[in-house]
Amino acid sequence: MQITELPMNLIDEDKDQPRYRFGEESLQELVNSIGEIGLLSPIKVRKAEGGRYKIIYGNRRYLACSKLGRDTIPAIVSESTDETEIYLEQVAENLTREGFTPIEEGEAFDKLLNDPKFASSVKFLAAKLGKPESYIKNKCELLKFGPAVKKLVVSGTDIRKGTLTEDQLLPLKDLPMEYRDPLALTMAKDEMPVIDVKRIAKLFKDASISERTKSQLLYKDGPGLLDTWSAYEASRKERARATADAERRKAEAEAEREEAEREEAQRKKAEAARNKGADGSQQQAAAGLAGTAAQAAAATAPAAVVTQPGAAALGEADAAAPAAVAAMAAAAAGARTMATLRDLLAALPAPDALAAELEAATSVDPEALRDGLDDLIGRLEGHLNACRTARAEVVKRI
Q1: Which residue, among 56, 18, 64, 71, has the nearest Cα to 40 in the 3D structure?
Q2: 55: nearest Cα among 101, 100, 11
Q3: Band of pLDDT at residue 308, cut at 50, 70 and 90
């Protein structure tokens, strides 16, 4: 790499280079530094028509040397003629320098992506410049803002009054233009931290808030907008809790209804089974009784005919009929009684199983369970007394 002293009057600035914002204070500091210790780093130029040179990078150093009245400046002369390579070199060089603002970066990336002269892609730029694709895309997003906002954008992350950092702007980038720029200017005026900017942006992105309300909110300052967000967020959480509670109650009611339906179905099934068993027993008893009555009638009929012929025999048969009917009814009642006793015995759980089930019923209200058991015990004691009385009557008939 050869460094040549070139006459200052043969060098032209590159008006299309990526960096164009130079602060007067920082430029004067560079002038003082070069005046004291000289120029430590050469500029880079390329050849132009008429024996002249155009700066690739080093505009600030060139301007500082001009202010010092220097006749020559150390320079590296590039032989490159590829416009894309030259512009990429300018961008890469400025990325290493302080003061290259995010807006200048965004404009440089946008030019490389959309100018027909370059027509690059994000992937190509990321590979050439050694930057993540998201870095390039975020810088281009900053170009959505208007000139008044762009003027306030500075490098770095320090929050200062009257300036904006990239981190402060990015949360606002997707808002409509009528909200985006006014909010950005408010954030700069009130030195709003990034986390608060994100909260305020969330407020303006909420579709449930009317456009009229959002327009009115633009009259508030940063702290006022933050207070509005806090109140809105508290209200939103309360609504969410109320909705969740309603859904929970609905689910519980549905579960209770389904459980009641299952219990009712099981009760009906058990009742149907008991009725079926009782009907079968009654039919068997009635059939048996009818058969017995028929056999008895058959056995006694001939004797009746012999001993009481004619009308007398018919009279005795008519007298025997009510007794047969009564015997059939008594047999049927006995069958029903036995069936009922068997069903009751089958329905009773084993004492150990009942005790274990009651002990496991921890989800039931203890007082309700106690009252239910007291009611059951009272009814069982009433039935038990009735059963003892009936048993005594049966014993008398034995």
Answers
A1: 64
A2: 11
A3: very low
Q: What is the pLDDT of residues 139-177, one digit of tens each?
A: 999 999 999 999 999 988 899 999 999 999 999 999 999
**Inter-helix orientation angle 122-129/83-95, to 10°:** 60
Query: Residue 358 has which token pair?
Result: 């009651």
**Which of the two residues, 3 and 277, has the higher pLDDT score?**
3
Number of C-beta neighbours around residue 175 at 10 A: 19
Q: Residue 183's closest CA among 138, 228, 140, 139?
A: 228
16 to each of 41, 83, 111, how far by Cα in Å?
A: 22, 11, 10
Alpha-carbon span 180 to 204, nearest angstrom = 9
Distances (CA, A) of 79 to 56, 61, 74, 103, 342: 11, 21, 16, 30, 112
The pair of three-digit structure tokens given for residue 72, joined into one six-digit string:
């020559």
Q: Which amino acid is located at 213 in the chain?
A: T
Question: Percent of the chain scored above 70 by pLDDT?
Answer: 84
Q: For residue 8, how far is the Cα from the chain centroid?
A: 65
Report how far apart, in Å, the C-alpha atoms of 194 and of each of 21, 167, 191, 372 are: 25, 6, 9, 63
The torsion of the CA quartet 51, 16, 99, 74, rounded to 10 degrees, works out to 0
Which is nearest to 55 in space by CA: 30, 27, 21, 18?
A: 18
Closest CA to 99 of 197, 211, 23: 23
pLDDT higher for 27 or 206? 206
Contact in structure between 177 and 186 (CB atoms under 8 Å): no
Q: Which two tokens stand for residue 123?
A: 């992937």
Residue 342 structure tokens = 């068997």
pLDDT of residue 134: 95
Collapsing DSSP to helix, strand or coil, 56 comes out as: strand
Cα→Cα distances 31→27, 66, 133, 320, 353, Å? 6, 9, 36, 144, 99
Nearest-angstrom CA–CA distance, 152 and 166: 10
Whether this prediction's pTM lies above 0.85 is answered by no
d(CA 200, CA 222): 9
- The closest alpha carbon to 189, from 140, 133, 232, 149, belongs to 149
**How far is it, in rounded angstroms, from Cα 34 to Cα 28?**
10
38-73 pLDDT, tens digit each: 888 899 999 988 889 999 988 889 989 999 999 999
Per the model's pLDDT, the better-predicted residue between 199 and 238 turns out to be: 199
